[in-house]
Amino acid sequence: MSINQILRTFIISFLLISCSAASPDQAEMIEHEKQTNEQLVDHHSYANSFDVYTTHLHLNISVDFDEEILSGYVVHDIDNVSKTDKMIFDINGLKIEKIVLDDEEVTNFEIGEHDELLGSPLTVDIKPNTKKVQIFYSTPSDAKALQWLNPQQTAGKQYPYLFTQGQAILTRTWIPCQDTPGKRITYSADVEVPDGLMAVMSADNDTVRSADGWYHFEMTNPIPSYLIALAVGDLEFASLGERTGVFTEPSLIDACVYEFADVEQMVIAAEELYGEYKWGRYDIIVLPPSFPFGGMENPKLTFATPTILAGDRSLVSLIAHELAHSWSGNLVTNATWNDFWLNEGFTVYFENRIMEQVYGKEYADMLMQIEYQGLESENEDIIDGEHPEDTHLKLDLQGRDPDEGMTAIAYVKGALFLKTLEEAVGRDKFDAFLKKYFDDHEFETVTTEMFVAYLKSNLLKPNNVEFNVDEWVYGKGIPDNCVKVETDKFELVSDKCDMIVDVDKVSELGIDKDAWTTHEWLHFIRHIPEAATADDLKMLDDEFNFSNRGNSEIMAEWYVISIEKGYHGIDPYMEKFLINVGRRKFLEPIYSALAETDEGLDMARNIYAKARPNYHSISYLTIDEILGWEG
Ligand code: BES
Ligand code: ZN
User: Fold this and answer.
1) Among the options 411, 567, 615, 620, which is catalytic?
2) Three-class SS string for 513-556?
3) What pLDDT digit, counting tens, does each position of 554-611 carry?
4) CB-based contacts of 456, cutoff 8 Å, min separation 6
5) Dist CA 611 CA 161 (whole Å)
6) pLDDT of residue 14
7) Per-residue pLDDT tens for 415-472?
8) Nearest ligand 1 atom, CA 411
9) Which of 9, 62, 319, 601 has the fewest Cβ atoms within 10 angstroms?
10) Cα separations in angstroms, 228 against 59, 88, 99, 403
């Protein structure tokens, strides 16, 4: 039984005893409190953070590329509110050497049973008045948060590279901490790296190399542990604007500066919408292609995949998304991973508003419609799958990997809930409400229930608006009153799609290929008719060069439909893509499509043998399962 479970049982039995002796009013209040406590419990952390918690964390570590380990210590400044004599941290695979209290006294600790998903509780003996817990430790060679790249896996091919990915529960694989989004900490760090390399974190960053290999960092705003992040490599910095800039390997810097020309504008737009940017600078680091996500909103320093460098700025909505997290997610944080939609749904909504502000309504509507298409198909899949209740915004991920909540439900159903509310009350009122929500909850964590109560009393009641909030939040699928997202541009594209099977030559489709944007091409690929054959696909590819297009979103979707139709013109390009790119969102559908046939599965396994060493654990653990890979 984890300490959280014990704590919960304790709270519940206490409340039950009190309930039996209470009046109906009191009973109702106690019931309410019981539910509130239950909602705050994080089933993905062992930490006894209700009793004692970290306020500031200081990290002192050396980065050893030869052994691929981090070693050193972490100091937790703690607040022991309940004067307990045990503090429980989360660890996963870490080697703990020694623990010292208040700089002087070595103390006892115990590492509990290891759970594949959650790791282990590290229970440390403390005193009621302990102020500091210093833990000496090192990481194992297979720490899940870390990806160690050899020089061949980088753009420059000369230096090794390291980056971390903390969300959702991986920070505990590189730092012993109370790894729950429900608690916030400030942090500082001293990090030593080998000669010639530069270290950056989700904190204030130097833009030039240090002389002695040591880098010092400060994050003075309180953040949840999943936002602590580090990257080390041959990095260069370029300024994008007054408060914005980009770090990347030298050979990519010009491409980044071109692609991100509008980032400063995005920050300005975001502030106009929902209030001051509270983090000082907004920089981006463009990582090697093995980064398993598109982007990660590490505060002050978004981590991004190089697959958004399309050369035409067409994929920069991803930056708008990560920037929007500076409000939704980083400033106001989901209390547990069951409330993940509060992070992502708000962010997709906000991202779309930034895009509208900077690029206009028509463009933003196209983006939203692309998202909506993704939601419709994923919603069906989830309803037919093992966990149909995953189409509720509020999730129940106890006993499961919180990453399983990373679906279009949290992202797009969440965003459409807000967009539908916006339509119901009008934009002005909705914007004022959201701005106030961010102000009232800044540097706090919020549960779904807290948001729902806030929504009712601050927006719906004052405006006399009836709204099916419960259906949206606790009900299945997409409610009937969901706003319609439509654009004329896509209707034109759909008309062309319908003609594909009837024409002999592409020219008969009458597509002005220079006029279409990435999103029109995506809509086109998605709406290639059922009846189209491999020959039809070859005809399109000969003209539009989708297989080797240089735009990752287009290529990834094209490979999937080509696999389904048995069109093999993609094969060499797809192989190159799969070996180079480690972004899970692209890999998962491609490998899944290949795994549908025996021949495809053979091909997938051959490619995977070469590609797997380039993938982060987040990606290869997913693909191992799809391909039944046992090494
Ligand atoms: N915070 C997420 C990434 C994440 C979610 C990592 C859950 C681990 C667990 C990030 O903001 C994100 O949503 N990234 C998206 C891009 C976005 C434009 C939808 C991605 O990586 O695809
Ligand atoms: Zn996000």
Assistant:
1) 411
2) CCCCCHHHHHHHHHCCCCCCCHHHHHHHHHHHCHHHCCCHHHHH
3) 999 999 999 999 999 999 999 999 999 999 999 999 999 999 999 999 999 999 999 9
4) 469
5) 18
6) 44
7) 999 999 999 999 999 999 999 999 999 999 999 999 999 999 999 999 999 999 999 9
8) 19
9) 9
10) 11, 19, 22, 18
Q: What is the identity of the amino acid at 165?
A: Q
Whole-number Å distance, alpha carbon 393 to ligand 2 midpoint, is 15
Mutate to test the pocket of ligand 1, among 179, 342, 344, 378 (most ligand atoms within 8 A of CB): 344
Would residue 46 show up in a list of annotated catalytic residues for this protein? no
| Residue 230 Cα to ligand 2 middle (Å) | 18
- The DSSP symbol for 115 reads B
Fold of 235-325: Zincin-like (3.30.2010)
Residues of the chain with pLDDT under 70: 1-22
| Whether residue 229 has its Cβ less than 6 Å from ligand 1 | no
Q: How far apart are CA 570 and CA 544, in angstroms?
A: 13
The CA-CA-CA angle for residues 290, 348, 240, to 5°, reads 60
**Which residue matches tokens 């409400």?**
433
CATH superfamily of 49-233: tricorn interacting facor f3 domain (2.60.40.1730)
- The C-alpha torsion from 611 through 613 and 617 to 623, rounded to 10°, is 30
Query: What was the pLDDT predicted at 582?
Result: 98
How far is 585 from 590, CA to CA, in rounded Å? 9
What residues are paired with 187 via a beta bridge?
57, 219
User: Among the atoms of ligand 1, which is closest to the Cα of residue 347?
Assistant: 11
**What are the residue ranges spanned by the domains of the chain?**
3-40, 49-233, 235-325, 332-474, 488-627
Ligand 1 mean position to 269 CA, how many Å? 21
pLDDT at 483: 97
Active site annotation includes 411: yes
Cβ contacts of 378 within 8 Å, gap of 6 or more: 407, 408, 409
Q: How far is CA 227 from CA 165, 206, 270, 309, in A?
A: 9, 19, 21, 24
Query: What letter represents residue 328's amino acid?
Result: S
Inter-CA distances, 400 with 414, 502, 628, Å? 21, 48, 20
| Atom 8 of ligand 1, nearest CA residue | 167
Identify the residue whose C-alpha is closest to ligand 1 atom 11.
Answer: 296
CA of 296 to the centre of ligand 1 (A): 6
pLDDT in tens, 346-366: 999 999 999 999 999 999 999
Contact 76, 132 (CB under 8 A): yes
Ligand 2 geometric centre to CA of 320 (Å): 10
Question: What is the homologous superfamily of the domain 332-474 according to CATH?
Answer: Neutral Protease Domain 2 (1.10.390.10)
Q: Residue 22's pLDDT is what?
A: 62
The tokens of 467 are what?
A: 């709204």
Nearest Cα neighbor of 320 from 340, 287, 293, 294 is 294
88 lines ligand 1 (CB under 6 A): no
Closest residue to atom 22 of ligand 1, CA basis: 294
The end-to-end CA distance of the chain, in Å, is 33
Domain 488-627 in CATH 1.25.40.320: yes
Q: How many CB atoms lie within 10 A of CB 575?
A: 15
This model's pTM is above 0.85: yes
For residues 183 and 445, give the distance between their C-alpha atoms in angstroms, rounded to a whole number: 8
297 Cα nearest atom in ligand 1: 11
Amino acid at 23: S
